[in-house]
Amino acid sequence: MKRKKKNSRQSRCLLHFFNAILTIKKHSGEKPFKCGQCDKSYKNKRNLVHHQKLHIGEKPFQCGQCEKSFTYKQHLLSHQMVHSGEKPFQCSQCGKGFIQRTALVTHQLVHNGEKPFQCSKCGKFFAYKTALARHKQDHSAYLVSHQRIHNGNKPFQCSNCSNRFADKWSLVKHQRTHSGEKPYECSQCGKRFAQSSNLIVHQRTHSGDKPFQCSQCGKRFTRSSNLVVHQRAHSGDKPFQCSQCGKRFAHSSNLVVHQRA
């Protein structure tokens, strides 16, 4: 009887000891269980085994409504909500529903204005990690496109004419001059435009919005280019020069009229 009590005390002591070790590891951030196929580490063996299923490719949980299979049961349960239309996680501010709690948490950043993800290249902040990832791709694309300005490389050629372009988007916009395509339509008057930037400027004629203001006289303009031209009246800048007589003009249109005379 005494031996049983002694063994019981020893068992409890060992249990407390191991629990204490686990608690210390939890707070220390130690992750001794390392995956042999990638650089991920885990605090306990169970989580490591759970992770290694991804490498094995084992997908034992199959959806009964489609052919998709999943590594983890929780992923299957989330997927099945796509079929049922169930969205158990609802935003308290706008009522929008989500299949996953993580998606709801990410969505709520829109309401509180929080933007925790910062671009290391330009300092811009984003509410979503995916938005930051897309933004970083823009940096890479813009850099490649910009470098072509220096090396003169224009790999994108128009199939209708001999014009070449440094980036694909410039080629797409140019090709609309041949096709007559105008995909951007004004919702108020139906007028169509080849470029989204032209639609934005046009919509200001309906709204009366003039976002570009002169810092010297307060006059406002719908286009930034109009503001630049206006500011020459204050600065006296005349960047357009006649090649024959040397006379200078603030506006290119005035130079054209002068050269015709």
From TrEMBL:
<dbReference type="GO" id="GO:0032502">
    <property type="term" value="P:developmental process"/>
</dbReference>
<feature type="domain" description="C2H2-type">
    <location>
        <begin position="33"/>
        <end position="60"/>
    </location>
</feature>
<feature type="domain" description="C2H2-type">
    <location>
        <begin position="61"/>
        <end position="88"/>
    </location>
</feature>
<keyword id="KW-0677">Repeat</keyword>
<keyword id="KW-0238">DNA-binding</keyword>
<dbReference type="GO" id="GO:0000978">
    <property type="term" value="F:RNA polymerase II cis-regulatory region sequence-specific DNA binding"/>
</dbReference>
<keyword id="KW-0539">Nucleus</keyword>
<dbReference type="InterPro" id="IPR013087">
    <property type="entry name" value="Znf_C2H2_type"/>
</dbReference>
<protein>
    <recommendedName>
        <fullName>C2H2-type domain-containing protein</fullName>
    </recommendedName>
</protein>
<feature type="domain" description="C2H2-type">
    <location>
        <begin position="117"/>
        <end position="155"/>
    </location>
</feature>
<feature type="domain" description="C2H2-type">
    <location>
        <begin position="156"/>
        <end position="183"/>
    </location>
</feature>
<keyword id="KW-0805">Transcription regulation</keyword>
<dbReference type="GO" id="GO:0000981">
    <property type="term" value="F:DNA-binding transcription factor activity, RNA polymerase II-specific"/>
</dbReference>
<keyword id="KW-0479">Metal-binding</keyword>
<feature type="domain" description="C2H2-type">
    <location>
        <begin position="184"/>
        <end position="211"/>
    </location>
</feature>
<comment type="similarity">
    <text>Belongs to the krueppel C2H2-type zinc-finger protein family.</text>
</comment>
<dbReference type="Pfam" id="PF00096">
    <property type="entry name" value="zf-C2H2"/>
</dbReference>
<dbReference type="GO" id="GO:0008270">
    <property type="term" value="F:zinc ion binding"/>
</dbReference>
<dbReference type="InterPro" id="IPR036236">
    <property type="entry name" value="Znf_C2H2_sf"/>
</dbReference>
<keyword id="KW-0862">Zinc</keyword>
<feature type="domain" description="C2H2-type">
    <location>
        <begin position="240"/>
        <end position="261"/>
    </location>
</feature>
<dbReference type="GO" id="GO:0005654">
    <property type="term" value="C:nucleoplasm"/>
</dbReference>
<keyword id="KW-0804">Transcription</keyword>
<keyword id="KW-0863">Zinc-finger</keyword>
<feature type="domain" description="C2H2-type">
    <location>
        <begin position="212"/>
        <end position="239"/>
    </location>
</feature>
<feature type="domain" description="C2H2-type">
    <location>
        <begin position="89"/>
        <end position="116"/>
    </location>
</feature>
